[in-house]
Amino acid sequence: MINNQELMIGNWVRYTRDFVTRDVQITNICSQYATVAVQDNLQNVRVYYDSGHIQPIYLTQPVLEACGFEYRGTHKEARGFEEVKTWRPRNSRKSVHVLFITSSYDGKSDTEWVLRINGDTVSEGMAHLHTLQNLIMLLTGETLKYEPKAK
After folding, report:
1. What CA–CA distance (Å, rounded) separates 33 from 13?
2. Could you tell me the domains of the chain?
């Protein structure tokens, strides 16, 4: 479950109800619940006032691609890390990069998502799409679009 204080209108989240899971946008937020608009197979829109069924969408390569990011390459042993994979948005006026960093310490491997804007690391350890959306909006003024694949 996501705390409503983490959300902004327009964030994408995963919504499960009646054994069906969909990626949906937040349409309204209040202290007790968040509102999502769910479009069914008949193109009818139903609005649900329920935060209990809202889960975060985890950052993955397909999620970044659905946000308009393109994979720019993998750098081995870059900047002291074992591996750094880089994505960049196709249509951004700012220098925005999302990095997936793999590092090893004492034989243990660790991974994390990192957001860099204009060469500065602004967030480490991101895990969810709504966090990435919020940071890009707050720091660049740009809306990160997400186009989920139909299931």
Report:
1. 14
2. 4-55 (2.30.30), 61-140 (no CATH)
